[in-house]
Amino acid sequence: MKLAWRFLTQPDSCWVQLLTAKYLKLESYWTEKKYHNVSPIWRSLCAVRSSMKEAVCWAVGTGHEIKIWSDPWVPYLPDFRVEGLPGAQRKIYRVADLICQHSRMWKVDLVHECFTPHEARAILSIRLPMDAVADRLLWLKTPTGQFSSKSAYTMLTQNAPSSSSSPKINPAFHWKALWQLQGISPRVQIFLWRVITNSIPLKSRLAQFVSSIDNCCPLCHVSPETTDHLFLKCEVVQLVWFGSPIGLYVDMNNNDFTLEYIFKGWLSQPSSFEAAKMGCAIIWSIWKSRNRVVFDSWKFDPKEVITNALHVYNEHLVAACISPTLPQTNTQVGLVEASAHWSRPPEGYIKINVDGATGKNSIVVGLVARNEFGVVLACRSIFDGNWSGKDALLATEARAFLKGFDLAIAKFPNTPTVIEGDSKLMVDYISDDHLIFPWRIRSIVQDCRSLLKSSNLLSVCHVSRHANKAAHKLARTAVSSRLSFEWCYTIPDCISDVVLEDASNSFIVD
């Protein structure tokens, strides 16, 4: 697949031009054709074509590189391709034919003339960047749109038929809570993940592949060694659980009483996190003792297992208790601690605070413009109730900064203006051309960068959420009202208290 990606993204390479001239001529790589007596390289490129179809899509710039009828370029349609109306293929060939390059707008009449209604809506929902940037092929399986072998492997394994040897990951398990547990060794956390996903070499699993292996539990020599038996229901392991500080009684008659069920309950609420950490230490000690029984002919001793588990638990508990008192340092170069309160812009400047919010199938932007005295000059709440994309939080933060630029240019074209938001990531994307940003917000970030470079009166800045409270509250109010509003030299009632508080704090700080 990596070779196929290079074939698609490096058309000027000699080997790509050679294969194109020999096998494609005027056709597209995506055209389904069978060839005989072809080279092994071309055969391998064709073999992965069906898998590539679901993972690549063009990001429209000028549209000169994208073939309308064969290339994937509409992300809101199946296979990212269009079929069009009868006779449309004779009118248009490249996506550039559908774009007015001067105004950077879609030719709406032509789109409706050539495509079905649902295809036309999908095409017109593609946002065009304001500058004539080059088209770019995106790999949709990574946030940045750049190909990686890891993401390709993940895609292929997910699409492959399931097998008994593949780990079964339950998405309903509280994995996030597990990884966020403090005061526990990372190797113990990873071991619990392996246990829950049935990814450790127990005898019952090994016996599936090697018939000569005895699948009996090495501790009780009665039942098959499965995950729930070894770590929970073996008669000697039950003594460990009952004698531990948890005091767990294992109900042998309840088939739903599994190790996954227990840990899922412990990780569902913070009040039982300590029990979860103790449970992790116990299964870790059980596994270590089990291996000593198998490889060193050691006699399993429940008391020693409990002692070892307490040692593992207390060792990292002490580290967790000490760490909060250590001084916190910021390792990110150039990151300045954001102010806890809103600060007035320099004399002669205007500051526009921006923030985004999300609702059901909707994204909202809140904008608040103030001068050096804290006086509100303009406010906007922009509501989009037809949002159907992905990564709404990312999209709304990006759109908030773009709308902030639009407000500055429309209302204060000759005044130095600071666009201020609480998304540090978005500020970095806009201000640093070397950063690679997510492909879903490609056109928005490109427009923000273009506007920032086009005027020396505009700048962007990051602040804390508390210092951006006015824009945040305005956006959240618009989520509830589901309406867009604009205010000039008046303060919306919903943020009047915040604006007053910000002005008072800014003068006190000064």
Please explain how this structure is put together:
With 510 residues, the chain is α+β, with helices and mostly antiparallel strands. The protein has helices spanning 2-9, 14-24, 40-47, 49-53, 108-114, 117-124, 149-159, 175-179, 186-196, 203-206, 227-233, 235-243, 259-266, 273-296, 302-322, 392-411, 424-431, 442-454, 469-481, 496-509, and strands spanning 56-59, 99-100, 105-106, 136-139, 350-359, 362-370, 376-384, 417-421, 458-462, 485-488. A 6-stranded mixed β-sheet has the order 9-8-5-6-7-10, sandwiched between helices. Strand 5 and strand 6 form a beta hairpin. Helix 11 (227-233) crosses helix 12 and helix 17 (424-431) packs across helix 18 (442-454).
Structure at a glance:
Residues 353-477 form the RNase H type-1 domain. By secondary structure, the protein is of the alpha+beta class. The chain has three domains: 1-157, no CATH class; 175-320, no CATH class; 350-506, Ribonuclease H-like superfamily/Ribonuclease H (Nucleotidyltransferase, domain 5).
